[in-house]
Design goal:
- The protein is α/β, with parallel strands linked by helices.
- 29% of the residues lie in helices and 26% in strands.
- The chain has a single domain, classed as Rossmann fold (3-Layer(aba) Sandwich).
- The chain contains seven helices and twelve strands.
- A ten-stranded mixed sheet has the order 1-2-4-3-7-8-9-12-11-10, sandwiched between helices.
């Protein structure tokens, strides 16, 4: 398991997360998972009569569901998806910091089981398009997106990690549409490690070696690597560090809107 040597930095950041308030329209929902109460903030589209996509949004280590819902502003960008901001439990690195399992099989797969429980229940409460189940996250939450690719590759349509590494090696997985955002000055999850992750993801998806500009120019430049199997990897490199950068939500939503699982 990788050591999170950046806990002091994230402890400071966590102090800023506690005081954020979730945007209007979100409600807290709860579930019992293995005898533990788990919660998430959920926002469903208003008066939607068609099946909706569902997007799970995982905060970083030391973060909160409220802060991520407030600062990522997904509700301002995506009016057509069920948005789910789960709340983490005390992490294995520091019980004062809330987070997610960073490898498949650790902590009894508590967070994979949490994901399964939420998805099953929310599919009963709302009209969910099973071809459009997405997951995105920042830092530890982004690493968990890669864990979910490993754990539930036939459930997810696409993942959107921001500032993450891939937590497994040399494993064959079903191809997955991926958009990964990385900062050149990231000192928490080193930029070089993220570049290695992007190389591995392109290999897993059997992408072409050469990428092409993706979409219209925006705050964040993007490159798409396509594959004959219909999957793609979009890499988004910015000049900042470990932060969730301006423009990330817009570009992830655009990617999710363009990708869904084929009908079985």
């Amino acid at each position: 398991m990788r050591s999170f040597s950046f806990l002091n930095t994230l402890t400071f950041l966590a102090c800023t997360f506690v005081f954020a308030k979730a945007p209007d329209g979100f409600t807290e929902q709860s579930w019992m998972v293995d005898g533990v109460k788990r919660t998430a903030l959920v926002r469903a589209p208003v008066n939607s009569k068609k099946p909706n996509a569902i997007v799970f949004c995982w905060h970083g280590l030391g973060g909160t569901a409220e802060y991520s819902a407030f600062s990522w502003r997904l509700d301002k960008i995506d009016n057509n998806s069920v948005l789910v901001f789960p709340q983490g439990l005390p992490s294995e690195w520091n019980p004062k910091l809330m987070g997610w399992q960073a490898e498949l099989g650790t902590n009894g797969d508590r967070d994979v089981r949490f994901f399964d429980t939420m998805l099953s229940d929310l599919q009963k409460k709302y009209t969910i398009d099973s071809r459009r189940v997405y997951t995105m996250g920042h830092s530890n939450g982004a690493v968990f997106c890669y864990v979910l690719w490993q754990a539930r590759p036939r459930v997810l349509a696409a993942i959107g990690p921001v500032a993450a590494y891939i937590p497994f090696k040399d494993e064959e997985l079903p191809p997955m549409d991926v958009i990964h955002i990385a900062g050149k000055k990231d000192q928490v999850i080193q930029y070089e490690l993220q570049l290695d992750t992007l190389r591995k993801v392109r290999l897993l998806n059997r992408c072409e070696v050469e990428g092409k500009p993706w979409g219209k120019p925006s705050v964040l430049g993007a490159t798409i690597y396509s594959a004959n199997n219909g999957k793609s990897v979009v890499t988004v490199i910015h000049e900042g560090g470990h932060e969730y950068p301006t423009g990330a939500s817009e570009i992830i939503v655009r990617f999710f809107n363009e990708n869904h699982r084929p009908t079985n």
